[in-house]
Amino acid sequence: MTTPTPPQADPDTALDQLDIELADLEADLEAAIDDTLTDAITAGVTAAALLAATAALATLVTGALRDAWDAATTAAPRIAPDRPGTRPPATPDDLTPDAVIETLAVREGIDHILRDAATRLNALDADRLTTLGQTFRRLLRDALTKLAAAVNHAFRAYAEPRRMELIWRTGSAAPCPTCLGRAGTVVAAAEEYAAEQGLWEWFGGLPPAHPNCRCRTVPVRAQR
Questions:
Q1: Helix (H) or strand (E) holding 19
Q2: What is the distance between the alpha carbons of residues 162 and 90, in angstroms, rounded to a whole number?
């Protein structure tokens, strides 16, 4: 049986295409969160109504993370192809999408945000529309941050069994000083970036470095 020919390396085009796919995914996710909250409060902006939306929100965010993972997995061989004549290695159990997405605690994060909103809605002086708007923005930020994490973990899942490296690339035209200082730095895919002052308290060795971080750690063939 012949070994499939790996795709030609075209990292810039692959990353541009990934950006387009993720932008569409983020827009769809934003609309879906908005629709889910709107459906939940049809009878009124109440604590019970918001809490009832937990399961539906968790399902749609988890689905978006899987879509982001698939998009990154498709892009990875075009960014850093396997060497000619080699067979793709197996992915370790702890780097499968199911394993990684579980660590991102999607439902737990949503539950925390909605319970906090419910507490504020139960206050006598609560501004219900303001609370609803704040809750939507927190849910969206949490979802988009975890979506970025899913992309970077998918890149690691591709790179680590191939003994590749990861290079930090900023994901916006105006990156924050913390992310700008890490741009271009490289680690082995099996390693982690060190947690330093200024990083998100939940930083786990890969971007996102903070909420709404758009940085990526992109696979490259090892140079050493």
A1: helix 11-40
A2: 9
- Tens digit of pLDDT for each residue in 126-169? 688 888 899 999 999 999 999 999 999 999 999 999 999 999 99
Amino acid at 122: N
98 half-sphere exposure, CB direction, 13 A CA radius: 3
- The C-alpha R_g of the chain, in whole angstroms, comes to 19
Both structure tokens of 219: 């696979």
Q: Rounded CA gap, 21 and 93, in Å?
A: 27
Q: What is the per-residue DSSP string for 147-199?
A: HHHHHHHHHHHHHGGGT-EEEEE--SSS--HHHHTTTT-EEETTS-PPP-TTS
pTM: 0.90
77, 86, 153, 203, 222 from 83: Cα distances, Å: 10, 6, 22, 32, 12
Element (H, E) at 200: none
Closest by Cα among 167, 172, 142 to 155: 167
